[in-house]
From TrEMBL, chain A:
This is Urea ABC transporter membrane protein. The chain crosses the membrane at residues 56-82, 145-162, 194-216, 228-252, 264-280. Belongs to the binding-protein-dependent transport system permease family. LivHM subfamily. PANTHER family: ABC TRANSPORTER PERMEASE PROTEIN (PTHR11795:SF447), BRANCHED-CHAIN AMINO ACID TRANSPORT SYSTEM PERMEASE PROTEIN LIVH (PTHR11795). GO terms for biological process: amino acid transport. InterPro entries: ABC_transp_permease, ABC_UrtB_bac, BCAA_transport_permease. It is found in: Cell membrane. One of its GO terms (molecular function) is transmembrane transporter activity. It comes from the Bacteria. It holds the Pfam family BPD_transp_2.
From TrEMBL, chain B:
Pfam families: BPD_transp_2. It is a multi-pass membrane protein. This is Urea ABC transporter membrane protein. Keywords: Cell membrane, Membrane, Transmembrane, Transmembrane helix. GO terms for molecular function: branched-chain amino acid transmembrane transporter activity. InterPro entries: ABC_transp_permease, ABC_transptr_urea_perm_UrtC, LivM-like. It comes from the Bacteria. The keyword Transcription does not apply. It comes from Pseudonocardia hierapolitana.
Amino acid sequence: MDVLVTQIFNGLSGGSILLLAALGLALTFGQMGVINMAHGEFIMAGAYTAYVTQNVLGSAGLSLVVSLPIAFAVGGVLGVVLEATLLRRMYHRPLDTLLVTWGVSLVLQQLARDVFGTAGVDVPAPGWLSGPVELLGFSFPRTRLFILLLAVAAFVALAAALRYTALGRRIRATVQNRPLAETSGISTRATDRLTFFIGSGLAGVAGVALTLMGSISPNLGTSYIVDAFLVVVVGGIGQIRGAVIAAFLLGVAQSWIEYSTTASIAKVLVFALIVAFLQVRPQGIFTVRTRSLA
Amino acid sequence: MNRRWAVPAAFAVAAVLLFAVAPLALSPFRLDQLGRYLCFAIVAVGIGLAWGRGGMLTLGQGVFFGMGAYLMAMHLKLADAGPGGTPDFMALISSDGVPWWWEPFRSEVVTLLAILLLPAAVAAVLGLATFRRRVRGAYFAILSQALAAAFAILLIGNPTGTGGSTGLSGFRGFFGFALSDPANRLVLFFTAAGVLLLVLALVRQLMVSRFGELLVACRDAEERVRFLGYDPANVKTVAFVVAAFMAGIAGALFVPIVGIVSPNDVGIVPSIGMLIGVAIGGRTTLFGPVLGAIAVAWAGSALSEQFPSGWTYAQGLLFMLVIAFLPGGLASLAWRRRARAAGPAPVPAPLPATQ
């Protein structure tokens, strides 16, 4: 019983990290068809933002809260710059966006190496997050609970924004029928840019959350980007809620298999499970019928 | 020059350069380097077929390259250890002896067969699993990338079996020949050069065959190919398998030439790195990927000798500039000139429609 609860909690916690990394992708890849390999480096940029913020403020307690909006802005600006300079011209070539953004990610990684050094740096967690929470006789680390809450909050905020705000309506309209949205007076160009800002900003938030998990290094993004893409593929393209289910499923599967084998075998088995799953549902957990992508 | 003779002439020039000029003009060290570039060129030929002709962006060629390389490395390690012996690095880490899945590779025949068949078999399984279910485009790219990630993680996580993150190195012999002997190294170089010419000839035949036309048709209008009664899944799988087969052979040649294989040669980063030369040279052409791969590998070692971090910036910028502004690669400059010289005649569709 102890093992069961611990494994499920570890899985949910791993899943919430995946979800944070994948939410932005679900927007930029799922909704806009851009395969942004630099998303991982936006996550890294968010993590280093938290590091810099903490060094400037000097207090761990405040800096986590302050760095969340700053990292959102940093990630968002990086995304908008990328969109405006390179991606703009290649929306009809999704596979090429993958390679272009891979180039961007190489440059950003090297830049981080030159600025912050190859070795990992630590961002100490604030005092109010240290130690475990006792709940029903089990103890859960506060940092992991915080990440879980942050992931759920990010998802709820994104889903609500897409559903209830004017901007969300514009984004959905542009995604579903670009020419018609344009005819109805929506500036699809501005909408694309805002969508990219939000998606990339979420990567920055994910980066801040990752600083709670351990030290951060320039290749931080590479270790999450593949899993994040898998989450989007399994969840179904263009499906935010699919990403949520997929992230938690993969997190729990990973932690469960890891418990009975090793971390590296678990990775391989989870990949095999995903390929097997795509045999049953090639379109992911949820299907979009309005348009075909890729 | 008459176009009919252009390709055979290019083959002849390549053969003279590789077999006569290079061994005379280069020092043994530079010749080894060129041999390494030739290995990447062999991978590039396969990528040109799968990606340029077939529209399948494979980000997992490092897996097949790595399979060939590790199989060869395992055999060389076992051969160095002698019959019944345990390779040095294994003896250091654990005293359990050789794992059972190493044992078959004591045999030269089994090793060579495995190098030829295993990467192709894995590619066939993955290819059929994805293309049958019409998983393609971006999805296929991401899956192949996940395969590369999983493979590298598996190698790193298994230090007693695969040498972990340091990989396998320190080989002394190659099928009974000493690797320290310059004459044997020359033979290795000639082998790589010969294999490159052979795979080029193979892809050339595939390109002009009915299969080549079907493959391009699958890239440009998969649904129509299906309506015509062909199964695009089979066509694409064959191209993917051929590409994996070539990458496997290249990996097997890489090991004795370079003397080491580690997860750094097979993971996500090197797998995508294998694409850049293909993109620069011109993914849809026969010789473009080869020339691009050699040029990029050469530039890579030249630049990283001078500026260690400079090469990463250069590689990133190359990706951005070539893909964004010259998606047909350098070869498309030649088409444009030819098209301009020929006036408004129809240009042979140069840009692959990557969905």
